[in-house]
Amino acid sequence: MQGSTYVHQLQDAANSRPDLTKEGNLFTEFVATIGAQVRSSYQTRHTPDEMIDQAIGLWSHLQVRCTDLPTTSAAIEGHKSVFVTLMPDQPFIVDTVRLLFQTKGVNNITGYNLVVHIGRDAAGKIIRIADTADPLESIVRLETDALDTAQMQELPAQLSKHLQLAQIMVQDFDAIRGAVSNIIETFSANAKRTNSASMKENADCLQWLLAENFVFMGAILTPKDGEPRRLGFARNEVEHAWAHANTDDWPKAEAGGIEIRKGLSPSPVHRGGRVDEVRVVSPSDDGSPGDVLTIQGLFTYRGITAASRHVPRLRIILGNILENQTSKPGSYRFKGISNVFDSLPTEFLFTATADEIKSMIDQVLEAEHDRDVRVHIIQHPKTEATFVLAAMPRHCWSDDLRRRIQETVGHGTQAAHCDHGVFVGRYETMLVHFYLTGTSPLSDKQSQDLIALVTDLATPWLVQVSSLLVDRLGRQEAAALTTEYGHAFEPMYTRMTSPQQTVSDIEFLERLPDSQAGILVDVYADIRGRVTIRIYQATDVILSDIMPVLDNFGLRIIDQFADPVTPRSGNTRYLDTFRVQGVWGLDTTEILQGKGTLIQALEAVFAGDMPNDLLN
């Protein structure tokens, strides 16, 4: 009823416009189609008159369509950039359009996709609307914040290319699946004739891909004797829009073999990420390599999240891992290995070695046992792919932490795209993995530094402080100080202060005299190399008493902040921090080299053992 009411509102708005009477009934029917298909959330943000203005713009695009190829236009309307695409309806249209905007960093996108039965004459002119006997056409209208001139010129051409790729992919989808099915029959026949378990497993793997676990985008079928047949993305007519797969850099072909790897080209349709490439070599009757089928596409979300223990080929890898360890079937470790294996993404397992997978599983099991954080990184430089797995106690986990880790590993590897997944393991352990593509290779040091960064992010601040105290002072004294200062600092302090600096602060606070005049000073360079002065006080010294002291030492202060500290004993102490721009006549290096003298002098002035005057 609500949709019907909105349709009538749009039609009334159109009928009230004298300039539209010449458009006739076809336009009125088109307006009704918009009213029936546009989401209610979009309706509430646009008045009927605004929607009619949009309909007029779309109507001009629809009048004549002389080609089945996608067409795209862009225009500035007020403070918005508006993009309109027109093509025969098919899957993957909206996904492809939004994916391009996403990869170009264009945000705040709103709009709709109209799917309309349209009848046209031989010249491509509209003669009917909404007759179900006519083919469906897709009209996408998207708007975003106004873009610059270069983007307005670049995006329509790119949209047309990507939509053409989506179109030819859908057109050849059945043909590609047919080529895969033919090879499955060859594999199955060979497996039955030779009693080959591996051949049967490979046939099952291809059948699994066909079962909605893989989006087939392109393929090259190269007969043993004959010319290659190109389908989908591999067709020559879309070579201007897509980099064809390199079929020359695969390992030596073996009859009945299947190789799966990450390609180097980003996907232009369906979803982000580098495409997956599959090479299948069918066996000839004499056992030699026969026809070769090279496929490009993407594992679907269903395929990525499938329980890997049941996926052909992967179940063999898991079986070998379980066979080569000492735990008995049904034991916690035996079940744990299978559970961790299931948590890893399918596309990673297909491309990783058995040793890499086993190492990853061992890291997770250690984290579960020790209830701490473990981070593991595996790189495949040839395919520009990196896999990062972090395991941590559940109490450490939050989606904000996942976002910060993703930003860290994405920046550290210079990734073009990142997929992630989250899995709840045994003993309240969280597993989060990141599959990054388009990455730069990391040196051993860079990899270890990145692991340390992620470990610090996932390890609670107090746990890091406690661990550092153990390293510095031993377990017994560290336990006492953790109890004393574990909840002594305010939230702002714990967010802004590193565990390393906190350990230093605790040591100064422990040495601080209990007397009212008790003051200690530290001078150091912060993470940006700026000179910082930390003043520890048994009682709060007001800022107006501190600043003249610093001024008389020629210290130029950028800013200052204070942190009260209330240990378990209840005696509140105070930290005042001053960031220093410089000292008259000295550079930063000279200040830090002479910090011992500066510390002694400041403490002497605050203690009253030295006058506070300009001679300082």
Category by helix and strand content: alpha+beta
Number of helices: 22
Q: How many strand elements?
A: 18
Strand percentage: 15-25%
Overall average pLDDT: 88
What is the CA–CA distance across the termini?
84 Å
Strand order of the largest sheet: 1-2-5-3-4
**Main beta-sheet strand count, sense and barrel state:** 5 strands, antiparallel
Globally, the shape reads: globular
Keywords:
alpha+beta, 616 residues, globular, 5-stranded antiparallel beta sheet, single chain, 22 helices
Helix-strand layout with pairing:
Blueprint: H1 2-15, H2 24-37, H3 40-43, H4 48-62, E1 71-77, E2 80-88, H5 93-103, E3 110-120, E4 126-129, E5 136-145, H6 149-171, H7 173-194, H8 197-210, E6 214-222, E7 229-232, E8 258-266, E9 274-283, E10 289-299, H9 301-304, H10 314-323, H11 332-343, H12 346-351, H13 354-370, E11 374-380, E12 385-393, H14 399-413, E13 417-424, E14 429-437, H15 444-458, H16 461-473, H17 475-485, H18 491-496, H19 499-511, E15 519-525, E16 531-537, H20 543-552, E17 555-565, E18 573-583, H21 588-593, H22 595-607
Antiparallel strand pairs: 1-2, 2-5, 3-4, 3-5, 6-7, 6-10, 8-9, 9-10, 11-12, 12-14, 13-14, 15-16, 16-18, 17-18
Helix pairs in contact: 1-2, 1-4, 5-6, 7-8, 11-13, 14-15, 16-17, 16-19
